[in-house]
Write a structure and sequence with these properties.
Elements (H helix, E strand, L loop, with lengths): L1 H7 L9 H6 L9 E5 L4 E6 L2 E6 L2 E3 L22 H8 L9 H4 L3 H17 L9 H13 L3 H16 L3 H9 L8 H8 L9 H7 L9 H11 L1 H6 L3 E8 L8 E3 L5 E5 L5 E5 L5 E5 L8 E4 L5 E6 L2 E6 L5 E5 L6 E6 L5 E6 L3 E6 L4 E8 L4 E6 L5 E6 L3 E6 L4 E7 L7 E4 L5 E5 L3 E6 L4 E7 L6 E7 L5 E7 L8 E6 L5 E6 L11 E6 L5 E6 L3 E7 H15 L1
Antiparallel strand pairs: 1-2, 2-3, 3-4, 5-32, 6-7, 7-8, 8-9, 10-11, 11-12, 12-13, 14-15, 15-16, 16-17, 18-19, 19-20, 20-21, 22-23, 23-24, 24-25, 26-27, 27-28, 28-29, 30-31, 31-32
Helix pairs in contact: 6-7, 7-8, 11-13
Length: 558
């Protein structure tokens, strides 16, 4: 009958008329709809067995499962302060995708349960104890965005309370999910005063600094962190993960930072040299014409020259114009490393042919040879003033040369392993050499190893390292199969070998091709660049310098 049809249609959307209900009675309805309005902003609908929440007419997609508490098991009901606590005590599987059938209720019962829960939540001034945080927080955020003043007040209070708790993963989450955007700069500044910084874990802060760089209020927070932990930051340079760029393929990934610290040049598989913006990763220009992948690369400290090598061939380029100046021929095998002297007067090259050659940059000719190792040369490093050159080779030796006289000053022998990379301190008092599993410090007064840092963990490799410009710290990349999420950037103190911190590298690790094999540090010590064979380049920036630069940038925009 007509009355029966109307009764069955009860609860449908109000705009559907009684006539429509009667006319459609004989047909199978396309949608089974129930509708409930909580207030002017929130409504719920049951559509095809699914409970949906709407805010100002737009679907709000969030967790919609009912939490059921078994009263027979509940011996401490009065001790439960919120739905979140109840979940933790009785229903830890709430996050799983369960269905009403699995809960033993109908779709309609689930729908009305949600309506009741959200209605009670609203009528009690959006009390967050009455609704699970997985839905109450996002819903409060959405209501704040659409202009619900009551929700805005509660949202600010709840966000502030959780942030002031000092639990850093939650603080990062509030940044990342943009919950803190509801606060004005003045409100956020007041909130910072409520945090007990003595309870914050500094190591956890260092790990998560990268996660809050670019969010609202992040600069205020980072400045406060630097002030609260000023003793640590003043004594230890902290490099934060600034960005990751996916570029073209580079088999040997030679990489160098320009003298103005604004760009980096990378050798590619197509034989080209490509210059990228260090902040954005945007390609600035392309030059060079090697016929095979570029193996080695260096930039003179004054920014005049760029040198690159492919097989035994070395080419020198004018940095400003990108024009080819010289082709240097003399090696009989692959050139593995290139080094301009600090004054930009000459270029030094090392090769698999065991030879080290010094090239005159005025004439583009071979100036002299510094002698040779018994096996292929792996690494070169000049002293700060250019008086000394250090070389390492596959024969497990490290040679210290006087660049003015070409005299071999001393030979250091590591009987255990060959030194893959070498660096000399700024005061010429020690040398740091690395293998895949160790860092070793050689004292140049005694010519002995005075310190050995062993990489912890089986399967971890030390692929590359740099010395800070004051030579007080070593920064190295650790990667390998145990580090499936990308690896670590670790920093050790050179005076005693102490590990200061280990920061995760946020990089999808899929094997050897994506390991960062070359690190380069900028002349001002602010940037570290890491290059991998499979297109990836990572950029780290000094934390305190980043804060200063960001402050200056924002002031310029005022």
């Amino acid at each position: 009958t007509y009355d029966e049809a109307v009764a069955l249609q009860e609860g449908f959307e109000e705009e559907r008329s009684k006539v429509e209900a009667f006319e459609e009675w004989d047909d199978e309805p396309e949608e089974d709809i129930r509708y409930f309005e909580v207030n002017e902003h929130i409504s719920l609908r049951l559509i095809q067995g699914k409970t949906l929440i709407f805010v100002n007419g737009q679907q709000f997609d969030q967790c919609r499962y009912v939490l059921l508490v078994d009263p027979l098991r509940n011996k401490n009901q009065r001790e439960i302060g919120s739905i979140d606590e109840a979940q933790a005590m009785y229903n830890n599987d709430l996050e799983e995708k369960i269905t009403p059938e699995q809960l033993g209720i109908s779709f309609e019962q689930e729908f009305w349960a949600h309506c009741s829960n959200i209605q009670a939540w609203y009528e009690n001034n959006y009390d967050t104890r009455l609704l699970h945080s997985n839905i109450s927080f996002p819903l409060l955020k959405k209501l704040t965005q659409v202009g619900d003043l009551k929700a805005m007040k509660v949202f600010k209070e709840e966000v502030g309370k959780r942030f002031a708790s000092g639990y850093f993963p939650v603080m990062v989450y509030l940044f990342r999910e943009e919950y803190l955007d509801c606060l004005t700069p003045e409100e956020f500044s007041t909130l910072l005063n409520e945090i007990d910084y003595s309870k914050l874990d500094l190591s956890e802060i260092l790990v998560h600094l990268k996660d809050i760089l670019f969010w609202e209020h992040s600069l205020q927070f980072l400045m406060r962190i630097s002030n609260e932990f000023t003793d640590f930051f003043s004594k230890n340079p902290v490099f934060i993960d600034y960005g990751e760029f996916v570029l073209d393929r580079s088999e040997f990934c030679p990489i160098a930072i320009t003298s103005d610290n604004r760009y980096f040049i990378r050798g590619s598989n197509d034989g080209k040299l490509k210059e990228f913006d260090i902040f954005t990763g945007i390609l600035r220009r392309v030059f060079g014409d090697h016929e095979k992948p570029v193996f080695a690369l260096d930039i003179s400290s004054d920014g005049t020259y760029v040198s690159s090598a492919c097989d035994s061939e070395i080419k020198v380029w004018d940095y400003t114009s990108g024009d080819h100046i010289y082709t240097l021929a003399g090696h009989r095998d692959i050139v593995t490393c290139l080094q301009f002297d600090p004054q930009g007067r000459y270029l030094v090259s090392g090769s698999i042919d065991c030879e080290i050659i010094v090239w005159d940059l005025d004439s583009g000719t071979r100036k002299k040879s510094l002698g040779s190792h018994m096996d292929g040369v792996l690494s070169l490093s000049h002293s700060r003033q250019g008086k000394y050159l250090v070389s390492s080779a596959c024969d497990t030796t490290i040679n210290l040369w006087d660049t003015e006289t070409s005299h071999l000053i001393t030979t250091l022998v590591d009987h255990d392993e060959c030194t893959l990379q070498i660096a000399i301190s700024c005061l010429n008092d020690f040398i740091i050499g690395s293998s895949h599993s160790t860092l070793k410090k050689w004292d140049l007064e005694t010519n002995k190893i005075v310190q050995t840092i062993r990489i912890q963990g089986e399967g971890y490799d030390l692929n590359s390292f740099v010395l800070t410009h004051d030579s007080k710290f070593i920064l190295g990349v650790l990667q390998g199969q145990p580090l499936e999420k990308g690896g670590n950037l670790s920093m050790w103190r050179t005076s005693d070998g102490k590990l200061i911190y280990t920061l995760p590298i946020n990089q999808a690790f899929k094997g050897k091709l994506q390991e960062i094999t070359n690190l380069s540090i900028s002349q001002n010590g602010v940037f570290i660049i890491g290059g991998a064979r499979d297109k990836i380049v990572k950029v780290w920036v000094d934390f305190l310098t980043y804060i200063e630069a960001e402050q200056a940038f924002r002031k310029s925009k005022e």
